[in-house]
Specification:
By secondary structure, the chain is mainly alpha-helical. The protein has 2 helices and no strands. The longest helix is centred in the first third of the chain and has 104 residues.
Length: 181
């Protein structure tokens, strides 16, 4: 009974191996085909990854160049704007203030002071206006003083002339009295 059983198991095993070999023989081409398809898919995927990597690298380079040019352009615009602001806000105002100071110092007290603002240049312009006003008052005062000096000199001429003539008369009288003695 044991040997029959063994034979049977061996028979089952043999049939199993035969069926596995049959299945292998039947499915081997399909397995090879699936393996080939898998290999082709892997190769295609790797090619696509390489293409995508190259495209990404090119895109990164373009982005870097674009950002670099944008930053460079922005810095240039900032520098030009800064130069324009400095030129407009400071250099032109300083030049106008200098022209006003020079004109007023040369006696043109009617020269306008056109610089305005709440900064140091505006403060200097306000001080220049005060200086100009003081200079105008000083000029007016000098004109009045000259008029007074002219009137005083004219008014003093008559008494001085009289004193001079009186002294001449005294001298003449003294000479005449010396002659009569």
């Amino acid at each position: 009974h044991l040997s029959i059983r063994r034979q049977r198991q061996m028979c089952i095993r043999d049939r199993f191996y035969e069926s596995v070999q049959t299945l292998q023989a039947e499915h081997l081409p399909m397995i090879v085909g699936i393996s080939d398809i898998s290999s082709d898919l892997t190769q295609n995927t790797l090619r696509r990854v390489d293409i995508a990597t190259d495209a990404l690298r090119d895109t990164i380079h373009r982005v870097i160049w674009t950002v670099g040019l944008t930053v460079g352009s922005a810095l240039l615009v900032i520098a030009l704007t800064n130069g324009f602001v400095v030129e407009r806000q400071f250099n032109r105002r300083i030049n106008r203030l200098t022209n006003s100071v020079t004109a007023i110092a040369q006696g043109d007290l009617d020269h306008p002071v056109t610089v305005r603002g709440q900064d140091e240049l505006g403060e200097m312009a306000r001080a220049l206006v005060v200086f100009r006003t003081t200079a105008e008052e000083l000029r007016r005062s000098n004109i009045e003083l000259e008029k007074f000096a002219y009137v005083a000199a004219h008014d003093l001429r008559s008494p001085l002339r009289a004193v001079h003539e009186l002294s001449l008369w005294v001298l003449e009288d003294e000479e005449l009295s010396l002659i009569h003695i």
